[in-house]
Amino acid sequence: MSAATRPASPGAKALVAIAATLTILFVAAPLAYIFARAFSQGWQVYMSNILNPMTLHAIWLTSIVALVVVPLNVAFGIAAAWAVARHRFPGRGILVTMIEIPFSISPIIAGICYLLLYGRQGLLGPWLQANDIQVMFALPGIILVTMFVTAPFVAREVLPLMQAQGSEQEQAAVTLGASGWQVFRRVTLPNIKWALLYGTVLCTARAVGEFGGVSVVSGNIRGQTNTLPLHVELLFNDLNAVGAFAAASVLTLIALIALAVKSLLDARRA
Amino acid sequence: MITAAAPIRARRVLPGFTLSLGTTLLYLVLIVLIPIVALILKGAEIGPARFWAIVSSDRAVAAFRITLIAAAIATVFNAIYGLLMAWVLTRYDFPGKRLLDALMDVPFALPTAVAGLSLTALFSANGWFGAVLHPAGIPVVYTIWGIALAMAFTSVPFVVRTVQPVLEDLDQSLEAAAETLGARPWQIFAKVVFPAILPAWLAGCTTAFARSLGEFGAIVFIAGNLPFQTEIAALLAYIRLEEFDYNGAAAIALVLLGFALVLLVASNLLQTWAARHREALR
User: Fold this and answer.
1) Cα–Cα distance, B147 to B192 (Å, whole number)
2) Which end of chain B has fewer beta carbons closer than 10 Å to its terminal beta carbon, N or C?
3) C-beta of residue A20 within 8 angstroms of C-beta of residue B92
4) Half-sphere CA count of A243, side-chain side, radius 13 A
5) What stretches of A168-221 show up as alpha helix (H) in DSSP?
């Protein structure tokens, strides 16, 4: 283990000063600027921007997407972690790589993939049209592409933890006659709850903030398929910067909540 | 990083294997695999000659060049800045350290569109930074530097968070020994510390580069999106879609997918190397 010490030499002090200055300029300033601009015309203008029907609709749509995607993703993440960390089977490594794939693929590519599958000219397009099912440029498409983009988020928090913890406790519970669900509820879940919470919060932040993939599949129909991040872009292109920043501040707040949960988690681990 | 190696000794004693693996495979196949296959099938349908004509067209080549150059600039910046942050956060105690550490997660949690909006406004003529930089004749917004800036912002945590744990694990007695033997601080860093963190650092930089190549949300705000000048590859694919040129979009997307998969493999290999390296140093 390495021990952190107070920077003693002038060189060390300079390194800390450079690091702090760069981070303030490069990370803290963009963060602060969002709120500075959102509130630049006062609290009342801010509230009227948030309460604008289009903005409210975007917030509502984004909430629906998150409410559908996040629980599905949590179920997937737990299932993947349980399968990979608690069992041995051929192809485990490939499965783990597959879980990580959405993480390294541009959301734009994800959007294009979905369009080529469900779009009018896509593989399933003719069948969907014949059955009058609208996936693209509608809510199902937005949900599906968000599921793609957020797929690894819960699994990558829970899986390494379950691997590190080992399965002795669960095996003991099984030996003592506990059923699968009992083992999961009484042994596994209490052990992974913080990592699960963090993964869920990260997944929510990502689902709520997804832009590239959603912008391909949503069709940007104002007041219909405009999620909150798309609404930010729309307001910006309408030259309504203060409105764009007000909408962005809602997304930023969700991101800050995610970070607060992470800090709590780190403090508990330490 | 998830690794496949797990300490499992017992046979299959724990229940729920079929259910959990079944759920995982169903989700992965439906949500991830089939859509990617749809893209690959579309690419096969285009045929090699037309595929090549699309991706070697002047506009596409310019877009790939701009994307690669900007991602390279961003990665070089992050390689240095990320290493500095990892070093400072593990080696020194100072007031505000926890806040600085938390700020390193902001680019990860902040939606890319929000980051793009804020950076654009910050660096445009009437923003906090633009007000200083513009009169000095340094335009950032609507240039390749703006693209690189947006890429660097969204990808910096990858370098910091990959190098940080390795630095924390490093046995400092080696450095103490080097110091006793009369090595200067920069010599200790270059000959003792840097070789130990090199694999992790390279892995972090590779991931950051991959992320930069695929970045879209933050860039569309700041780039100005002029063909041949500030149009990135992901945006060109998007424009082709809006023109209903699905072949064009699919071909460009496939090239980006190829880059992403090659970099994913490279990063995984580097991570494995880094993990073995770490074990050997213990």
Assistant:
1) 36
2) C
3) no
4) 21
5) 168-175, 180-183, 189-209, 212-218
What separation in angstroms does the CA of B48 have from each of A1, A118, A160, B248?
54, 24, 42, 13
Domain boundaries, chain A: 9-38, 42-269
Interface test with A, best of B31, B159, B186 (most A CBs within 10 A): B31
What is the residue-averaged pLDDT of chain B?
Answer: 91
User: Largest alpha-carbon pair distance within chain A?
Assistant: 74
Name residue, tokens 């693929």.
A105
Q: Which of B26, B29, B32 to mutate to test the interface with A (most CBs of A within 10 A)?
A: B32
How far is A70 from A90, CA to CA, in rounded Å? 29
Alpha carbons A222 and B151: distance in angstroms, whole number: 28
User: In this predicted structure, what is the pLDDT of residue B102?
Assistant: 92
d(CA B215, CA B219): 7
Distance of alpha carbon A114 from alpha carbon A135, whole angstroms: 9
Residue B68 contacts A where some CB pair is shorter than 8 Å: no
pLDDT in tens, B4-41: 555 544 455 788 899 999 999 999 999 999 999 999 99
Over the stretch A165-202, which tens digit does the pLDDT of each residue have? Answer: 888 899 999 999 888 899 999 999 999 998 899 899 98
Question: Whole-angstrom Cα distance, residue B35 to residue B32?
Answer: 6
CATH architecture, range A42-269: Orthogonal Bundle (1.10)
